[in-house]
Amino acid sequence: MSTAGAWHAEAWGEPGKPLIVLLHGFTWLGRAWEPVARSLAADFHVVAPDLPGHGRNPLPPQAEFEPIVRDLAAWLESLGDVDMLVGYSMGGRLALRLAQILGARVRRLVLIGASAGLATAEERETRLAVDRELADELLRDGLPAFLDRWTRLPLFDSFRDMPAERLQAWQELRSHHDPAALAGALIAMSTGAQPYLLPDLPRLHTPTTLVVGERDAKFRAIARQLAEALPRSEVVVVPGTGHSVPMERPEAIAALLTHKEPVHA
């Protein structure tokens, strides 16, 4: 494992091999992908950045969704063609927009628990207001209290079902953030701050795999909606998991990316 590029990023495997880029979700880090990346390193060069406002990568002065995506796109172009672009949750929303921008530079897209955003301005404004309140809570109460409340959201019920030792290790990993930067990232990359991408998806011809946990009913419905819009897509349901599939079943994600075992429900 090493660092890669101008952004802080974890890297596994040898440069020159097919490139996989992994984008984490909100409150996570590039290192969260390590259990997946280690299984891929023999055959791929795997790179997982800390997204802006997370870990070692600061939030840029122009902290808005589209400029952040454009910066990410420029960084990815500096790495060369991407054999697979994989994004989880918030990282999945970023990955979907990046695939639109980069076109043929991304050969395969894998979205885990991701969405295309919210359809109406009213929905986006409501979500942004909620995320601003959460950001205020983070600044007021501190990172440990915020992470505890965040993990108790119903979306993460199955994540909390993991053995206590594993859960504690994951929580420790997520403790390495600057609260102000993370609060800014929550607002800048909020689902309420991004454009609604669904209407343009019929023009995206990148082969796309939509991964969702069996217990994640909300995002299973969203995955079906995305699959209807994307011309070259499939939905993969990972049994026994909820929203946090890469953390709950990293071996299933690695197998899916290397086509070594079926993980369909």
Radius of gyration: 17 Å
Q: How would you name the oligomeric state of the polypeptide chains in this document?
A: single chain
Spatial order of the strands forming the largest sheet: 1-2-4-3-5-6-7-8
Task: Output the helix-strand order.
Answer: EEEHEHEHEHHHHHEHEHH
Number of DSSP helical runs: 11
Helical content, roughly?
Answer: 40-55%
Estimate the global geometry from the Cα principal axes: globular
What is the fourth-level CATH superfamily?
A: Alpha/Beta hydrolase fold, catalytic domain
What's the rounded overall pLDDT mean? 93
Strand element count: 8
Low-confidence stretches: 1-5, 261-265
Describe the 3D structure:
The chain is of the alpha/beta class and 265 residues long. It has one domain (2-258): Alpha/Beta hydrolase fold, catalytic domain (Rossmann fold). 43% of the residues lie in helices and 14% in strands. It has 11 helices and 8 strands. It has helices at residues 34-40, 65-79, 90-102, 121-141, 143-151, 157-160, 164-173, 179-188, 217-229, 245-248, 250-258, and strands spanning 2-3, 9-12, 19-23, 45-49, 84-88, 109-112, 208-213, 233-238. An 8-stranded mixed beta sheet has the order 1-2-4-3-5-6-7-8. Strand 1 (2-3) and strand 2 (9-12) form a beta hairpin. The radius of gyration is 17 Å and the shape is globular.
Record the SSE blueprint:
Blueprint lengths: L1 E2 L5 E4 L6 E5 L10 H7 L4 E5 L15 H15 L4 E5 L1 H13 L6 E4 L8 H21 L1 H9 L5 H4 L3 H10 L5 H10 L19 E6 L3 H13 L3 E6 L6 H4 L1 H9 L7
Parallel strand pairs: 3-4, 3-5, 5-6, 6-7, 7-8
Antiparallel strand pairs: 1-2, 2-4
Helix pairs in contact: 1-11, 2-3, 4-5, 4-8
